[in-house]
UniProtKB/TrEMBL annotation:
It holds the Pfam family Ten1_2. GO terms for biological process: negative regulation of telomere maintenance via telomerase. Signal peptide: none annotated. It is found in: Chromosome, Telomere; Nucleus. This is CST complex subunit TEN1. Gene3D superfamilies: Nucleic acid-binding proteins (2.40.50.140). InterPro entries: NA-bd_OB-fold, Ten1_animal_plant.
Amino acid sequence: MLPAAAEYQYLWEISSGKVSGGATVRTFGRLNSYDMANSEAILAVQHASTQHQLQVRTTLVEPFSAHLGSYYMALGELESDASPILCARLLVCIDGADLSLLQQAVEEQRSYLQGRHEETGGR
């Protein structure tokens, strides 16, 4: 069986507990640390004067060329509700991407999907 399609969730939404465990998500943030021996990385992002972090399990994407301080997009499943851990299926460097346009695209996609959901009556 194929995994569920990933929805964009901002890192601050995940770290604040707005996204439940088991969800398939796509997010992005700056690579703060990477521990190859334990297959763990930390993505971080600044939002509304608060630093948000997300632990990422990198077992399925290794080996990868980690560049601390670079922005990465991660796709995977959340393993926990209390302290979310993202088990990454994809981890790709997105340095050079216009993050404000990416956020605008996420908002447009959410708006479109919400409208489509309302048209079908929640089906």
